[in-house]
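Standup notes
- DV: blocked on the single-chain target, sequence here:
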Amino acid sequence: MYTFKFTAHNTFVMFYKKKAFKALILFVAAIICSVMLVPMTAAAETADGFYLGGFPAGFVLNTTKVEVVGLCEIITEDGMCCPARDAGIKAGDVIDKINGEEVNKTADINTLISKEYKKYDLTLIRGGESLTVSIDPVKERASSGKRIGVLVKDSINGIGTVTYIDKTNNKFASLGHPVTDSENTLLEINGGTVYNGLVYDVKKGVRGTPGELKGAFESSVIGKAKINCRCGVFGDLSKDFNCSKLIKVEKASIDEVSIGTAYIYSTVYGKEPKKYKISIAKVDKQNKDNRNFVLKVEDKELLDRTGGIVQGMSGSPIIQNGKLIGAVTHVFINDPTRGYGIAIDKMTSSY
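- DV (later): unblocked, structure below
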């Protein structure tokens, strides 16, 4: 207190000297400029960096497979018919080729069927096996276009969790495990869009039956999906994505991970992630299936709400000693309080 008063008094005396007064004006101006520059510098510092995820995302991934999800009747000049049913096509079949030409998206079917062939052979994938059927397209009365009577899809969508944002390189990572088909085969993707998500309900996990987050997609975009691999879904971050509310974080190698207390950041309601206590029960650096950690949920609030780990929490970041060490990937079917996690080393080296 004495020092402050002494300094103030000496500054006041300086006002009576012209040169000193001029110097003081310059000094004050410098202080004002520095104050104005601080927020700009802080903003620049937060523009880049590595940020913690834990928030929900809606995934719409374009696949390279065109799957039959149903059959339908075609209204022709001669009545109604379904060429696909007559040819023996079933829901679940993947249309691989038409007359030897590859089908990678739904639009390819109409393009190839519209060509003037004497006959049309469809190569299907059914139960992992390839078979060929002949089909006779018919002309639809309303559009005069050729149709075969199939309802198909070439994309897959669902709710998951973003693990981290790499703002320096404008990348994002999510899920921690691959998106697979009904036969547990990794799906090749041809791009896709990842939206911000909202969790509105949860189906609680119980022994023998995994739980599930129920969510909705928002219109704002997180980024464009680029790859679906064994370590998750990765992509390019939208240039409009705002990191200002996210937590900046450092990564830790799997060699730094120890048995004991850790935390996950996850969203089980709304849009904002919360911190939940877990424990690392096992560390397996060399695991070939990327099941590098065995986790146990210890947090009573999370257990009360979800029963433990549920579908949709995949990708939730795992923190130990203030550093990002990995992401939640799987739940034990017979014990929803336990699950697996992937090491962050594996994820960051994937894209």
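- Follow-up: The CA atoms of residues 212 and 247 lie 26 Å apart.
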